[in-house]
Design brief:
Helix content is about 50%, strand content about 0%. It is mainly α. It is rod-shaped.
Length: about 140
């Protein structure tokens, strides 16, 4: 059997190595969690209300960018892209008529029906911005 000093000498470097390895592992985990949290914060909106249309704000589907159209309730990315594609197709015609003169014109787009139109109607600005044509739903 080995003397007690020999055992201490043999295990002392092993315990230091295990401590350093454990510490390095924990530091690596903390760095990974920190990076993952940073990416999650960058990807998700700051608050649920920040991406929604604010009270009193109006969006004109005839010239609004895709990012603004996405903010309309019930629209989302696919429908916003369809609105932009439809609008661009109409604007390509001679005479350049407006694609949407009333909120009901949005029903020309596949996937947008009366329920969605009624949901977005309060947030739309069609026609002259000072008049607010069709911006407030009829009661």
């Amino acid at each position: 059997m080995a003397p007690p000093q020999a055992i201490r000498v043999a295990t002392e470097p092993d315990s230091r190595r295990q401590f350093v390895q454990s510490l390095a592992f924990l530091v690596g985990i903390l760095i990974g969690v920190g990076l993952a949290s940073g990416f999650a914060v960058a990807v998700f909106p700051r608050s649920a209300g920040s991406s929604a249309v604010r009270s009193g704000e109006r969006i004109n589907p005839n010239d609004a960018p895709l990012a603004s159209l996405i903010r309309l309730p019930g629209v989302g990315l696919t429908r916003a892209r369809a609105i932009v594609a439809y609008r661009d197709r109409i604007h390509a015609q001679p005479g350049h008529p407006p694609a949407f003169t009333t909120s009901d014109d949005l029903q020309e787009i596949k996937g947008i029906g009366p329920a969605i139109v009624n949901g977005v109607r309060p947030w739309l600005q069609l026609g002259d911005a000072s008049i607010g044509i069709d911006a407030v739903p009829a009661r």
